[in-house]
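Notes to self, MarR family winged helix-turn-helix transcriptional regulator:
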Amino acid sequence: MKSESVPPGPSVLLALQRATHITLQLLAAELAELELTASEINALANLADDRGRTVSELGAAIGTRPTTLTSVLDRLERRGHITRGAVPGDRRAVLVGLTPSGRAAAAVIRRTLADLEQRALSDLPPEAVSGFHTVLDSLTEGER
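result:
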């Protein structure tokens, strides 16, 4: 993106960063009983559909490298929330899945996320939400 195409005014990225921190604080407060870190919450939220993912797929969904994700998965596995197993036909890949306690935690996380999103976006017109998604897509495309 060329600097001349950036509109004057407050930084979109700084506003996004501030919103992210506030969102993480709200989630931490509302999910305190789960005793999970923000990264663990993110991983479980992305596994909530109970469709196993390889470490690489999960890392891409979360926006982190598989090597960074390993310590998060180690903690979730020690707590009994996930399992890691082999991928048929690919000896190098590791498949991550939820255990019953992981499913329960993921369900609580997804409900909390949906409630928070509903509270935050309910007064916005659909085109504003769509525009926000367009901005987020543009930012994440820059990573690829």
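- Residues 36-120 form a domain with the Arc Repressor Mutant, subunit A fold (CATH 1.10.10.10).
- The mean pLDDT is 90.
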